[in-house]
Amino acid sequence: MKSTILLLFVILASCSKDSSKGFNAQLPSETQVGANTFGVTINGKVYLPRDPIGTNVGGSNGHGMRLWGGGIAPNEYVEIVVVDGASSVGFKMTIHIQNTSTLGIYQLKQSNFQNQADSILENHIFFKIYDYNLGNYAYYGSIENQAILKISRRDNGIISGNFSGKFVRYDNPNEFITITDGRFDINSFTLESQPFP
Fold this sequence. Notes:
ten-stranded antiparallel sheet; single chain
């Protein structure tokens, strides 16, 4: 009887934080109103920004989603950094937008898996997700001209768009992930105060 109770306790303790809170990730609607939303499906799982409360895969990024900017003309950039720090294993994605002040569709370039000043001076995306087969995180980045970033709105502090395409694993050039439905709608004036539970 004691071993049955112990086994039940171990099973319940190993359940993800998400299921214990009833968290059910669903892609947000695609909007251009500054709703401070982000969503992407990777390998059948929806990833959303969630403020770090446990596994902080975002490092010093203590918020579910951040918008950074920098660089000196003519090489200004904006980065959307998204983390899921509330799930049992988490997720982190960086969307580096370089010199993109007009609306339209942009081909993503080969990611160098670096952000901010260490990034290439091109549009690219890179992310890390947990690989259960490895028991560790795997890094993926955009491939030259095999992924797109569409900017639908960029004015009054709002940047909205979507992204899709083929992404390669950092340490295995023969392993790919295809994303078909990444989306974001961010208001830079209200993002810092937006909770991501």
